[in-house]
Design a protein that fits this description.
This protein has 199 residues and is mostly helical. The chain has 2 domains: 3-105, Arc Repressor Mutant, subunit A (Orthogonal Bundle), CATH 1.10.10; 118-197, no CATH class. The chain contains 10 helices and 3 strands. The longest helix has 18 residues, at 88-105.
Length: 199
């Protein structure tokens, strides 16, 4: 048995997502499928045409990675369902399994972020927002939903699913940038107002 046989397809999916910058941004699942095929063509290729990627095999790996009954939620999906991003828990899973996966799957460093770094802009906007500044000074979270809607770039009337998606995306970016203070702020807001996020 080869070393790669010890790794499940859902683990390869998470690794591919990480390699494509999924810790700090949403990545199209078609790009993840191609990366999975590049890493493990025997796993993600057609049965009769091994030179072609099989999208269904990648979709199954994604489904297994997202199954809440088997493991904590690791991925955040966009409203259009075409992109994925690692949550904080997903990034922690990568950190725990990094040596094992990099040794077998071979690529040592992830693909860097685009030079524009839109994720850095997101964190700067949070840090400059009135709710965050007030929280830093007083440790009181915003009580007006519209103020937090501005921070998360959504509408006060957006669905709780949208609110939760924006929250998890911001947490993922902050975790990837090692900005623990932003995560603490976001977690306190979510804890104080669970109804905003479907809790």
């Amino acid at each position: 048995m080869s070393p790669i046989d010890e790794i499940a397809n859902w683990e390869i999916f998470l690794w591919a997502l990480y390699q494509l910058g999924g810790s700090s941004q949403f990545v199209d699942i078609e790009d993840v499928a191609l990366e999975c095929f590049r890493i493990a063509p025997a796993r993600f290729g057609w049965r009769t045409r091994k030179n072609l990627p099989d999208y269904k095999k990648c979709a199954k790996a994604l489904q297994e990675a997202e199954e809440k009954s088997r493991r904590p939620k690791m991925l955040v999906k966009t409203p259009d369902a075409f992109a994925r991003q690692l949550t904080v828990e997903g990034q922690q899973w990568i950190e725990t399994n990094y040596k094992r996966l990099s040794r077998i799957l071979q690529r040592e460093t992830p693909v860097p972020e685009p030079k524009q770094r839109p994720t850095s802009r997101m964190l700067t906007e949070i840090e400059r927002s009135q709710p965050f500044i007030l929280w830093m000074e007083t440790k009181s979270v915003p009580q007006e939903k519209w103020r937090m809607a501005e921070v998360l770039h959504c509408s006060p009337d957006s669905s709780s699913e949208t609110w939760n998606s924006r929250l998890e995306s911001a947490r993922s970016v902050a975790y990837n940038a090692d900005r623990k203070i932003i995560i603490e702020f976001l977690d306190e807001v979510a804890s104080e107002h669970p109804e905003w996020f479907g809790g």
